[in-house]
Write the structure tokens for this entry.
Amino acid sequence: MIEAAYVCGETLGLAVWTQDEAGPFQAIPYPGTSWQPEAQPACYPHEHLRQGTAKMLTLFHPASGQARAKGVTSTPNTVLHGWLKRELAAIVAALPVRRAATSEEAQRAEWHGWQAGLTIRVTLPAVLPQLRLLLVLDNLAGHHSVEWVLWCYAQGIMLLYTPLGGSWLNMAESLQRIIKRRALEGQQPQSAEEIMAWVEATVAGWNTAPTAFEWGGQRAARRARSRVRRHALGGSGAMTRRPLRYRRTPKEKWTAPCQTTH
């Protein structure tokens, strides 16, 4: 469902956003490139000072590359959900109006369609608004709280949770790596507040010329071609680049047509 959202969600008139939290980032010197002469690396202080940590709350729209982020020192539900509600409400309010569904049954079927294949499905409310946005987020316990889920449904937001060990399905992870590198590499923040300010400034700079993300691309095509060229072996997930000849069983040998030589 997450891959389907990335590939065809926007073409169906649904905004596809991703959400994640990055960090914690400690207020310590971060390695990075520098203009130091060769064989004379820059020296970093060796003292271990506890100057606090910071985290980054992120909302990312892969189709446009636009991001929304906020630096915080901790992410309890009161902080995370409060920020998400403000940002998501503004995002939904700015979305273009979709063509209304032909009936209430068709509208509900669209919501159920994004739960296909799930072994455990969230019970949808009796009254559902028009579906407006798909939100990809990780499978934390706080993201399943009843109050948060019902609020999202009331706004027309469908939640798509990444499975355990499937954070690679969340494209916000890729953006956060870029933001962290640009904000902190080669720097020496002195406090958590400084880290938060740098992160938010870096996201603001990113939004001046954002880069859209696409799911898959050339790498996925190469992996697909590679899978086609491989041959599966029974018993495990092992594969070979060429098919293997299997020995015939005694029964097959006796039932095979006789070959005579002259």
In short: The mean pLDDT is 81. DSSP finds eight helices and seven strands in the chain. The two ends are 64 Å apart (CA to CA). The CA atoms of residues 119 and 163 lie 12 Å apart.
